[in-house]
Amino acid sequence: MDTKRKVFREEKTNTPICNQIVAGAIEILIKKIESRLTKLAVETIITEPNVLEMFWPRKSSYKSSDDLDREEKILAENSLKFGLTFSSADGMRPEFLHRTFAEYLVAKHLYEGFHLDDKRHNKLLENESIRKLILNKILVLKQYDGVQVFLDHMVKHVVDEDEEWRNQIDRRQLPHRLKKFSENLFTQFLRSFPPLWSLHDQTMFRRLYFANALHFSLSNGKGNIFLLLCDCLDATFEREQIHWAMFTSFIPSFHPTSICFISPTCFKENKLFKRFINYFDIDPASPSTYSVISELIAGMFCYYTPEMLVRSFWYRDEHQQTMSDLLQFLENQHVAFNEYFGPNQGFLLKLILEILMGSDNYCSHLETFLKFLSKSTAYSDDIKFAKLLMEVFCSKEHLMPGQIAKTLAVLLGLGWSTLLVQLYGGVLAVKPEAFQTLYQPRRLEQENAIPTDLVKFLERDSYGMTRLHRAAFYGDVEILDQMLERFGQLELDDEAKQAVRQVVLEGYTPFCFAAVKSHENVCSNLLVFVKDIFPEALMRKSALFYGFIHRSYDRAVDSKNVEMFQLILKVVKKELGFQYLLDLLETTAPIRNHCWSEKLFKAMAKIIVDQDGTVDYKCLNDLIFNGKQLARNALHYVDAEHLQGLLSVEGADTFTKRVFDASCTYVGFHQLSKMLKNFNQTQLLDFVKMITLKGDTKIVKSSLFTASTADLSDPTYLDTFIQRFLGDYTDDDLVFTENDDGSITVHAERAVPRNSFWGGFLRSTFTSLIGFSISQANVYIILEFLTCVSDKLGGDHAQELLLHQDDRGYVVIDLSQEIVKLMLERLPENSQEQVKQKWKENVPPMTKDSFFSFNSTNQFRTVVIANHCSDVLQFYLDYGSEVQLNECVNILTSVRLIDGQQRSVWSYIFEHCEVTRTNELLKSVLETFGREAVKKLLLHEMDQFPLILKSLSWGEDIDGRLETLPQEIRNDIQQVVERKSAQLIDNVFLDHKTYFEVQKDEFVKYAHEKTYKNFFNILVFVLKYSNAQQLEHFVENITTLQVSRYGSWPIFELTISIWAEILFLTNNVATMNMFLKCVSQRLGTNAVKELVLHKIDDKPVIYYPAVRGEERMVEAMLAHLDAKNRKEIQRQVNEFLDTTFEVPFDGGLTTAMMECFRM
Prior knowledge:
Mean pLDDT: 83
Structural class: mainly alpha
Number of helices: 66
Oligomer: single chain
Number of strands: 18
Helix content: 55-70%
Distance between the termini: 50 Å
Radius of gyration: 40 Å
Shape: globular
Low-confidence stretches: 201-208, 253-260, 1003-1009
Strand content: 5-15%
Largest sheet: 4 strands, antiparallel
């Protein structure tokens, strides 16, 4: 602006500046131009008329019209010369060259209101309405983002450098207008918790949102505005009150302005985070502190996945101090820290530890945080603490090189030797180099390696390592063999043998040490030794799971150490036999499935398929399908090479069947979708035959239970317990399995007919009868199947999938027709036409049973059935022949009694399907059958009314429905509506509960979705079609007739008027505006006033949206009053709000404010 002034002064005015009078006049002119431009800027940015009038009110003038016009012309001409505006095309009003000019001027106008000097500020903040406008709109709405950006930049000097401002804040001596501004800001926090009487269970239906400049400024990157607001609060309110304000603005998890919605990037500068966190650093025993830590940690860390850590917010140098401040806060709030960071917060803890371990800049921070954890209840135990750290170490791909070693060095520096002992075996498997650096196992020298004393042999160092461990670690085969040979030569008593056993078989064994370092010969020799000296350790079945081999195997899988994993399998196969290896994998692999990866699978497969130099996949195939868990996991990692090997064992058809049997049809299709591209033509043909096979059987098993032999031998037990357990099973279906402990596991199983895999998957996934939205992933899978079959086998085989029939007929009839169209498109064009022709020739004619055959249903199922009916109808309309559609309209309009009501197929579709969907169907019916068919659908009678009028009881917008029809049909139906509307309107109020009361069991699920809109549709119809006598009683009817209202929290039932019920349900401003406009037009503004002031519990209904912060709803309710009543009722509302949300000036908290800490 300074540049613009200079250019205007020196170049545009063409006047010598040496003349003091002229110079002064130019300065005055510039001031007037800037004022005029500011006014234009306000008009440009603030488009709402009532808001604009408030922000820049008209000023009265005693000048003549000629003088005002002349002055305006001069200002207009010179304003254009100022360089910010241009003349619009119509010449009516200037426009800014760029919107940012207007935003800057509005921001400057706001900024000038914050001047401390009484002579410099522009008196903007002296007006309470403007203060509220700034806080409730300009500082909290996205549409004013440009203004906020400029204002944020302008106030930076104030909050950072202005000594006078800082002194005023410290002395708590703000001018009166700024104190009032602070009070208005505080009212925003109060309004976040409206009185419960205003809600009437509203929280169950929608989240209330109240403008909050404090939260908005911080969450939208306007940090200086945030600091300015904080300064105002500091100078006006007590610390406890400000803490409450911060708590209500940022913390409650049920509140839509929870800090969880704030990215850490809001704290671009440490000063913002420090200021923010200091407000919460209060009494550690405060019950609110747990919520603070919970939301703070979630907000500051949950935005990151391990893959993002390297480039995350925390790895920038400027945020090290932020981490320090956060850790200091957690230390100060140690009580809540201990409560929050329990065993269930493992994910967050691992994430924080990964961040701290991932940068050299956080070494001291890591040490501090580890100290916190060690003092917590959850991790004061070294075993639990070590487990947590190992989980972090196992995600080593997310840590920078050397970070595990540096973390261990921190632990060593803290003197936590016991914890290091717990960690050393895990570190050995995950990072052998780090293990060697820290634990430094000393390599044995040949001459001192073999002591004569057994005690020396078995002596352990501080980390539990013996000479045998060290020899295994370094791969000293010769020394280790001499040790094992010496063990064999010694005469060992039971005690000595047990001591040797502990070294060789328990804990972190020498075998594990050797496997980690890939010393194959050492591992082989140790297995041979165990087989000779401790054969029982390998012979018991439990050894497969609990034995020393399994523990080493387990650590290899957990740490994803592929080389160690492969070596263990190799030496087990070599020394203990192939069957032992298979038993080991079959027993353990399902348990470790969550740690598997493609590399581990390939390593396992390589060992198993190698049969003495030849490749044989039978054992791998049996292993995968022997246990469902292993199959479900391993099939994710089968590549093209191994897939062909597995398919070679029993063929593609049997392989496909075993995939489905291993899990379920749904999971099987997902797994096969990743493999199908690697099937050859023959295999793919077998696959199609298998998934479309009908008449097969499957084994269905009951749940398991365990009983003793004595129980099962008791006939009474069999009759009383097992018979109840069997259900549809019989005694012949029982299967008894003996367990090692002598108990018997019992289950029932039988073979039952199986639907085809293809039909079962389509029906369970893509039919509208499933009642929930169709997954895009599932659609993709089916379309990929069709594409693959079509491309590799041709359109004829792909046709089979679309023409498939199961025991219920053609599958495609019951599917979502959108999916059917997509499936068709995956076939060649000629195949598409052939499929359609075969449907036309072979699909059975439409009957009532094509849609439904039931006499009772519930609300949820009704919606599902309606969508299913629409899909069936669409299929027949799109692909049916004349014969198949012969009775279509009669079937759709045939009325039957369901749940005591007359209903037709079309009535379900019309009521419950989307309007666009029913319009499409009506259009198809018109094209297929003509106008009379459409009229029959809309005018067939139920309960003595045509469907189009009956639909009013469902809340349909009848006029809106009619508008979509062709003119000639609309005119005919409109005549019927007008002829019968009076009778219907009488019925609306005679049977008002049918039209306006939500049933108790449906209230929570459906009331908040569309009921309020339905009610408004009914009332608008009544207003439009009522005769004079009916209109006369309209307001009386909706304000006196009572309906029951239910709530789930707190549980309640009350009786209120129809109008009050609608007010509680609606938050749709447009609908309210439309309805009251209709009232005003048909009944006048006095009727609107009566509705607006109608009382609920002695309070006018307009107070309810007012206290809930629904300003636009209040404006809609006032908009259709005359000017006098609008002004008066607005005044009443304002006074009521001021009283309800009165700011406490005693420095304390009200009872209502205290309640928020307990929510």
